[in-house]
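>> received
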Amino acid sequence: MINKLSMAMLLLIVLIVVCDDSEAATRRQYDSVTRGVRHAIEDVRHQLPKRVDEVTTLTNAYIDPNDDRKAVFVSTLGVTKSDIDQRTWQDLGRKLRSQACADDLFKDSIEHGYVSVLYRYIDQHGQSIGEFLINNC
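>> returned
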């Protein structure tokens, strides 16, 4: 699951413009980042729904309408919410964060506030399981 999600994230990484100082970022650089993120999300959307592993299907990807720097990835798990124990859930969150922060470009983009990523999970009955926001490393 993590490896295929990282491919979607890699798509975002390639398109993100990074400055040395977020305060020095110009409107043009900001626009370039948001255009790149939108383009990456559209590329992912054309592949949906996408089976990630035996229990996970990526079902939606979009830019948060209230924050154009936040990419949201929604996955449906082929289990019920009660099937997920707290330890497994916490392990998934740690893996997602460490994966995002392992890449220097992505890490810099997050730390400068150019992008954040929200992974949202729903169970097989449409019930929200939870979400992970990666906005710091």
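>> The first helix runs from residue 2 to 14.
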